[in-house]
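User: Could you go from structure to sequence for me? I need the amino acid at each position, not a summary. Structure tokens:
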């Protein structure tokens, strides 16, 4: 009985030692697992930051922001004026949607010289936008002198866009050549190449091959072409 009690007392320290060893081993395993370079804690991937690309003249990117020159007297900075003939009436609504606040002066059978008169009057009244859209030349031939006369009115504008013509008349190509060569002579003057886009999409036109369905796909496309040219040059 005494021997049995002694043996029992001898086993208690042994059991305690085993328990301690097991606890220590468990702690070591946890620490090793937590710090092991082969295992990484699961983390949510960082959200991608919104990146705005700008253009600069140095480095891998390029600047896309254009700065318009300040207009001369008689022009309203921050405003756009458009002068055109009956074709402009076809796309007037989408043009006003694309360019909020634009002043549109369009009329049936308007001639080039009529446009000069309107623009000159607006300028004298200080109501001509610093950016000007001219969409004339559908109703008759124009010359290099006509273009220069128009530019004498528009000199001092911040940006000018001429819309070339698509019309089933013998003056179509000569007029477009006058516009192209004239625009090349002056700074801040650009051509919205409607003639090329129109030739690629004959389905946009009515029976006369010149006018568009009002607010139809062709009207939307022409308004967008003009807006893009005005924005980007």
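Assistant: Here is the amino acid at each position, in order:
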């Amino acid at each position: 009985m005494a021997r049995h009690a002694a043996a029992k007392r001898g086993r208690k320290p042994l059991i305690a030692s085993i328990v301690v060893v097991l606890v220590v081993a468990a702690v070591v395993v946890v620490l090793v697992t937590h710090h092991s370079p082969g295992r990484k804690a699961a983390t949510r991937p960082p959200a991608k930051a919104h990146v705005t690309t700008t253009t600069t003249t140095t480095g891998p990117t390029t600047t896309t922001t254009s700065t318009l020159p300040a207009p001369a007297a008689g022009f309203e900075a921050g405003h756009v004026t458009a002068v055109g003939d009956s074709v402009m009436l076809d796309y007037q609504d989408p043009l006003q949607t694309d360019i909020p606040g634009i002043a549109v002066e369009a009329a049936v059978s308007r001639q080039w010289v009529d446009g000069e008169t309107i623009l000159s009057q607006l300028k004298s009244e200080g109501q001509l936008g610093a950016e000007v859209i001219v969409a004339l030349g559908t109703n008759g031939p124009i010359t290099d002198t006509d273009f220069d006369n128009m530019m004498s009115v528009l000199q001092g504008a911040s940006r000018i866009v001429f819309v070339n013509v698509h019309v089933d008349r013998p003056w179509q190509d000569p007029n477009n050549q006058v516009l192209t060569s004239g625009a090349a002579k002056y700074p801040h003057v650009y051509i919205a190449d409607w003639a090329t886009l129109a030739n690629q999409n004959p389905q946009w036109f009515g029976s006369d091959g010149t006018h568009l369905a009002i607010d139809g796909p062709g009207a939307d496309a022409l308004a967008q072409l003009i807006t893009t040219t005005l924005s980007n040059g």
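One structural detail worth keeping in mind: The mean pLDDT is 81.
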